[in-house]
Amino acid sequence: MRRTLPIALAVAALATAAVPAVSAAATPSTVNWGPCPADVASPGLECSTLEVPLDYRNPDGRKIEIAISRLASKNPSQRRGVLLTNPGGPAPGLKFPVDLMSAHLPQSVLDSYDVIGFDPRGIGHSTPVTCDLKPEQEVNGNIPPYANTAADVAKRAEEVKTVARQCATSKTAWMLPYVTTANTARDMDRIRAALGEPKLSYDGYSWGTYLGAVYTTLFPQHSDRIVLDSNLGPGGWDAAGERLWGQGVQDRFPDFAKFAAANNAEYRLGSTPEQVTAKYFELAARLDRTPVQGVDGATFRMFTFGLLFGNPGLPKLAEFWRALDTNQPLPPLGPGSDGPQQDPDNLISGRYYMICGDSRWPKSVQTYQHNVAVDRIRYPMFGAASANIQPCAFWPDPIEPQVRIGDQGPSDVLMVQNLRDVPTPLPGARQLRQAFGDRARMVTADQGGHGVYLVGKNKCANNAVTTFLTTGQRPPHDLACAAEAH
Questions:
Q1: Across the beta sheet with 63-71, what order do the strands follow?
Q2: CA nearest 242: which of 445, 347, 391, 124?
Q3: Mean pLDDT of the chain
Q4: Half-sphere exposure at residue 213, Cβ-oriented, CA atoms within 13 angstroms
Q5: What pLDDT does residue 486 have?
Q6: What's the pLDDT score for residue 455?
Q7: In this predicted model, which residue has the larger pLDDT, 395 or 1?
Q8: For the chain, which has fewer Cβ within 10 Å, the N-terminal or C-terminal residue?
Q9: What is the mean pLDDT of residues 40-55?
Q10: Does the predicted model carry a pTM greater than 0.90?
Q11: What is the DSSP string of 244-295?
Q12: Burial degree of 374 (CB within 10 A; 0-12, 13-18, 19+)
């Protein structure tokens, strides 16, 4: 399954008096299903497009297109409705229903729903945005580099100020204020209405958890069964949420250290987890001084961050370390994806449009220099990267207040969360769980990596999601799933 933040490209009430929670059109449109674009075409997958307002405050104004897809249920007697899906990112989701099926989405779920995918506004086959990024601006994707000094932050600030200016002056700058999670949630409700469904169910991962949380806050009356997997905090992908990556690496790294120590005969990175941990800091410092084969300390830390996302990445990470440690040829490090190859400019630009438009990020370079200095000590493995400055510091203020996730609405949310997750660590999930109150139940799985349902192997957690999607039954209380031997 395509996970968020690909390595090669880098991982209460609505407080809006000015912008009401605009509902979808009351009269369903006709969706004409047909072949999918060539880069996402798959057996059984149908595609279409839907026109939606650019600005929901002016619903009769300029329109943009949203690309949608469907894997239709083949069991009409068991079909409950539609299950909208989102892979996180923000990234294209048009092929995601097929990715879920390939990851063994249970037949009972496939029978219960038409599984719906879509590319969020601004991204992929939906009306796309650009920041006219140059190749060197795409190298780290949306992952800031590790900053050893305040001067590193100042240098990064000049670079991202240029990116922000390019976004604001590109040929798609007319979309910039309107590519937000709230408007993407409103697009979801337009999809629901166009399909003639009174309610929708939802399965969203990573950034998709924030999208789902915003949707069910704006449209609680149209929410059926809402699954949020690998959760951002209630503020979404904001500066505070990004800083949590530092803790995520600290939480997850012991899994890799244990793996590398157990396989020391092959990788020679240390015979104990403590020795492997020491090797991380030794290699990072050495590469800060003298890069090897074009890999400096910041790049080493970034690849480590990305390859900690899933257990299949751990052998690759050990091979990468070993090659750097001994100055041998580097192994191939592409993220590996069963999804279509995306235009990096659109993918990275779309994320900037979305996350920078959602909330106010600190504007002062000194704030980031302070945060980097604090997090370099607090989370020494990656904190000085995740606290570093983003183009959002130089973004226009959002056009509407951020949606505030609260406890008003039906009790129809199931959160699932690994205990040791790199980009969406447990503290953010706990904050979202608290914000939802009795609307949500949370299932935690004692395993590492990013993604629970169909991604991890914890049967307790996987079964809880399948049961909820097919029967509506959730655990009566939050559930802690113990580690399972595999």
A1: 45-53, 63-71, 113-118, 81-86, 200-205, 223-229, 413-420, 440-448, 479-481
A2: 391
A3: 92
A4: 35
A5: 67
A6: 96
A7: 395
A8: C
A9: 97
A10: yes
A11: HHHHHHHHHHHHHHHHHHHTHHHH-S-SSHHHHHHHHHHHHHHHHHS-BTTB
A12: middle
Cβ neighbours of 43 (radius 10 Å) = 7
What count of other Cβ atoms lies within 10 Å of the Cβ of residue 12?
A: 15
Residue 128 DSSP class: B
pLDDT of residue 252: 98
Tens-place pLDDT, residues 138-149: 877 789 999 999
Contact 345/130 with Cβ under 8 angstroms? Answer: yes
Share of the chain above pLDDT 90, in %: 89
SS3 152: helix
Residue 8: pLDDT band with limits 50, 70, 90: very low
Instruction: Confirm if 167 and 176 have CB atoms less than 8 A apart.
Output: yes
DSSP letter for each residue of 443-482: EEEEEESS--TTTS--HHHHHHHHHHHHH----SS-EEEP
Distance (Å, whole) CA 136 – CA 256: 30
**Whole-angstrom distance, CA of residue 404 vs CA of residue 406:** 6
pLDDT in tens, 167-191: 999 999 999 999 999 999 999 999 9
Sorted by sequence, the CB contacts under 8 Å of residue 21 that are 6+ apart come out as 14, 186, 218, 219
Question: CA 251 to CA 420: how far, in whole Å?
Answer: 5
| H-state helical runs in 124-197 | 150-169, 181-194
Q: Which residues contact 9 (CB under 8 A, 6 or more apart)?
A: 138, 141, 142, 342, 344, 347, 348
The structure tokens 């592409």 sit at: 334
SS3 label, residue 433: helix
Within 8 A by CB and 6+ apart from 334, the residues are 7, 8
Q: Which amino acid is at 313?
A: G
Residues 400-422, buried b or exposed e (16+ Cβ, 10 A)?
bebbebbeebeebbbbbbbbbbb
